Amino acid sequence: MKRSFFLILVMCIGLPALAQDLSYTLEENIGYYNGLTDSQTDYQKERCKLDVYYPKDTTDVPVVVWFHGGGLEGGEKHIPDGLKEKGVVVVTVNYRLHPKVQHPVYIEDAAAAVAWTFKNIEKYHGDNNKIFVTGHSAGGYLASMVGLDTGYLSKYDIDANKIAGLIPFSGHSITHFTIRKEMGIPGTQAIVDEFAPLFHIRKDAPPMLLITGNRELEMLGRYEETAYFYRMMKVIGHPDVELMELDGYGHNMVYPAIPLLLNFAKEKSKE
Questions:
Q1: Where does residue 69 rank: exposed (0-12), middle (13-18), buried (19+ CB within 10 A)?
Q2: Residue ranges making up the domain that contains 203
Q3: Does residue 259 carry a pLDDT above 80?
């Protein structure tokens, strides 16, 4: 479902803030495997950390779990512009990277971070019934995989359907190109296997907002695979999935998409 740049701009300008005059604090470099597993590698201890940015003076706040992009080969946890002081708890996550690890470690790390969030976020004034999982590019891919393939979270006795919403920003719907590279498959050959969100379409998945840049400006095929994912989720009977294409933006479309994420979280938190 295509949205024009003008409509996006109106939505961004007119979007009410989720909070006013709250005081926020940041707790950094929390090891999210701590307490979830008995042993960790040195690289796991170094890399598998998250930050929590939360308001101090209120409770039961919606939570946004953010996975950075970087092709599963680079990137660092950060809070995107536009997510600060918006009445949400932000959990921003580092995960292990290629070539030091290979699939499915990236997805396993993402699931462990989401599991940590479910088990601990109330200490940071978040509501674990209002956890929204999102990220850009590779991070959007991880968000989709954790929310759609229920096996990753079930390892921690968490039902993936408890996620309040999945909001991948320009994430792969087919198998990620770095994983295809690890399997010796050319980047131009589309694969839909167990490492593809498209493989795991189901009508009982959490609500989804799919956001991409303009189809002519995006990475090769990214809009088209996302549109096909959207169509197949509708075909299978998913009741709450929407696709937005941001005119005027290519793959680097995080900033204009953030207000859409916040509006989605606000509306779903009311339900």
A1: buried
A2: 5-270
A3: yes
Q: Would you say 240 and 208 are in contact if contact means Cβ atoms under 8 Å apart?
A: yes
Looking at the chain, the whole-number percentage of residues with pLDDT higher than 70 is 93
State the pLDDT at residue 167.
98
Number of domains in the chain: 1
How many CA within 13 A on the CB side of residue 26?
10
pLDDT(53) > 70? yes
Cα(245)–Cα(210) distance, rounded to whole angstroms? Answer: 9
Q: What is the pLDDT of residues 76-103, one digit of tens each?
A: 999 998 999 999 999 999 999 999 999 9
pTM: 0.93
Give the CATH number for residue 113.
Answer: 3.40.50.1820
Are the CB atoms for 93 and 66 separated by under 8 Å?
yes
Q: Which of 198, 195, 208 is nearest to 110 (CA)?
A: 195
CA distance 27 to 127: 17
Residue 246's pLDDT is: 98
**Residue 147 tokens, joined:** 């929310």
Q: Which value, in Å, is the radius of gyration of the alpha carbons in the chain?
A: 17
